[in-house]
Amino acid sequence: MGSGKTLLIIMLLLTTNLTFEENIKNIAKIIGKAEKVRKAKDQLIKAIMEFKEYWETYGKRDYAVDKAKKARKVFDLEKATLKQLELWLRHPERYDIKQIDYPGQKRKRKKN
Q: Which of the residues 11, 48, 99, 100 has an alpha carbon 20 to 30 A from that of 42?
């Protein structure tokens, strides 16, 4: 995020009813919460990647079947929310994550 966007966000978070110190404390809390969410998402993505490796190795047939089907709801691994990632973990048969079990492009047949 550019410094201009960061400054704009900070200005939007400031409250004129509070003192400078109170505003700084509030912004620090918000930044702390955002950092915790980012860390939680990173840990969840790591768990998903480990699950994928396990699934590919020990559930080859199940993984191939799931990967061949396109789910109605498809998430992007990097852009997905924590809630979306958790939904996929609970029901991988209902959802797809593009970098995990999304069918991708079909191979083109060679013409003889």
A: 11
